[in-house]
Design a protein that fits this description.
With 265 residues, the chain is α/β, with parallel strands linked by helices. It has a single domain, classed as Divalent-metal-dependent TIM barrel enzymes (TIM Barrel, Alpha-Beta Barrel), CATH 3.20.20.150. The chain contains 9 helices and 12 strands. The strands form 3 sheets. An 8-stranded parallel beta barrel has the order 2-3-4-5-6-7-8-11. Helix 2 links the parallel strand 3 and strand 4. The longest helix has 18 residues. It holds the Pfam family AP_endonuc_2.
Amino acid sequence: MMKKPFRLGTTSFIYPDHIIPNVKKIGAFFDEIELLVFESKPKEVMPPRNDVKELAGLSRDLNLTYNVHLPTDINLCAPDHRQRRDAADTLKRVIELFSLAPVTSFTLHLEMDKPMPSKDGMEVWRNNAQQGLELLVPALEDPAKIGVETLWYPPDLFKEVVTQFGLSVCADLGHHIKYGYDISRTFELFGPKINLIHLHGVDTHLEKPPQDHIGLDKMAPGEFRKIIGHLKHYTGTVCLEVFKLADLQGSLSALAKIFNGIPCI
């Protein structure tokens, strides 16, 4: 057993309810809560400003911070310039809204259509990503608070724009297991730029593609060991990105076998 070196978080959808009731129920157990803002349309689905003010108050009462998962119903890498512009405008609005609360990072998807594009298609995607970020980043006070999340494609593909724009990286280790990418290589590529880890179980036994965002207790032991080796030296935030109480409890139980200071809910 060792003391956990990282800050521990989970999502704002452990109970089937809105963000604030979830923060009230689970916030006291964690250092940070991931606020899930997956949808931006219609505008009414966005948290109102008064809710963000209440979240700021809860952060003081519960001694926690937040990270925000930015909307996924927009595409900063879209082929169409108008779509990229609309995506950048939406992201700026969300980031500005949450400036009222203590947010450590904003998680961004740089979307890519499947299957993997050709060499020429990849160059088009890179150009679109660059142009989309050019519409977003100049408006940001601190670009390093934007963490590009590792998705289904190789993390190497966004290294250039991360460096160019001074961004950070959200290393989703569950995605690494699901899609067969080398966790060690991602840590070598990005090192201190990894400002957030998304952690969740992946069942590689039955389903194709494997089911992810489940409890860590459901992982194959070998895959679980791959992850734990990196957590032992990580001092940032590790967010258990699960969406059910049972999966959260199973994940906490699995971590508690390795680290001291893991809460029990």
